[in-house]
Amino acid sequence: MKIKVCGLRNPENIRLIEALDIDCAGFIFYRKSPRCVSDGEECREAIRRCTKPKVGVFVNETPENMLRKAGLYRLDGLQLHGDESPETCNALRQAGYFILKAFPVASAGEFPETRNYAGCTDYVLFDTKCAACGGSGLRFDWSLLERYTGRTPFFLSGGLAPDSIHDIRSLQHVRFAGIDLNSGFEQSPAVKDVRKLERFIREIRLII
User: Fold this and answer.
1) Cα separation, 125 vs 152, whole angstroms
2) Given phi > 0 = left and psi -120 to 50 = alpha, else beta, which region is 96?
3) Which of 88, 111, 155, 202 is the right S-S partner for 147, CB 3.0 to 4.6 Å?
4) pLDDT at residue 109 in the model
5) Would you place residue 39 in the very low, low, confident or very high pLDDT band (cuts 50, 70, 90)?
6) Mapping DSSP to helix (H, G, I), strand (E, B) and coil, where does residue 145 land?
7) Cβ burial 108-138 (10 Å sphere, 16+ → b, else e)
8) 0.85 cut: is pTM over it?
9) What's the chain's average pLDDT?
10) H or E, element range at 196
11) Residue 189, strand partner residues
12) Is the pLDDT at 101 greater than 90, yes or no?
């Protein structure tokens, strides 16, 4: 199972997190997010130097701007949280980036349609539906995942926290590929609690 830690910004925090047993690090380029990366040189260089695969998170950004940011920050993957089309996803993938397309899930029973994105994304990511395009810290009803019958593997996001290990272990979906850790492991927006993450990752690696 892959582990992604998202919403990083602080240079020292980035250095400590990348030393953990994670598969990729996420950096948010959405201005309305409290975890949006800084345009400053120190932050940019810290992201560039990160040794783990780097994923940039965007919301309804133009492909041109995403590619510009990807080059500037030396990103490896792009995570799209808006209304990006399958054609946009495919074009970015053809440009050499691995693609995660996020889909909001409503706890009231609404499950997103993903079939149009098959073949043009590497992963889909299911996150709790909210007004802020993610980062709510809330968990949707995971039983809704039974409705997902697509072939694209998925990441699970939304409300994951140190006490989620048992529930993650019990999730048996054949396409379950990874987890996206963010606000549930923070000391403050964009500053992760390294000890909590280290302990959680060690425990989850032992059981899954």
Assistant:
1) 10
2) left
3) 111
4) 84
5) confident
6) helix
7) eeebbebeebeebbbbbbbbbbeeebbbbee
8) yes
9) 94
10) helix 194-207
11) none
12) yes
Q: What is the pLDDT of residues 109-151, one digit of tens each?
A: 889 999 999 999 999 999 998 766 655 678 999 999 999 999 9
Q: Residue 98 — very low, low, confident or very high, per pLDDT cuts 50/70/90? A: very high
Show Cβ contacts of residue 162 under 8 Å, excluding neighbours closer than 6 positions: 184, 185, 196, 199, 200
Question: Taking a C-beta distance cutoff of 8 angstroms, is the pair 5, 17 a contact?
Answer: yes
- The token duo for 198 is 């280290």
Q: Which residues contact 95 (CB under 8 A, 6 or more apart)?
A: 67
Beta bridge mates, 176: 154
- Say if residue 155's pLDDT is above 70: yes
Number of residues assigned to the chain: 208
Give 27's contacts (C-beta < 8 A, 6+ positions apart).
6, 7, 8, 9, 37, 47, 54, 55, 56, 57, 73, 75
Residue 132 DSSP one-character state? T
Kind of pairing, strands 186-188 and 191-192? antiparallel
Q: How far apart are CA 83 and CA 86, in angstroms?
A: 9
Amino acid at 29: F
Provide the 10 A C-beta neighbour count for residue 2. 14
Indicate left, alpha or beta for 110 from its phi (over 0: left) and psi (-120 to 50: alpha). Answer: beta
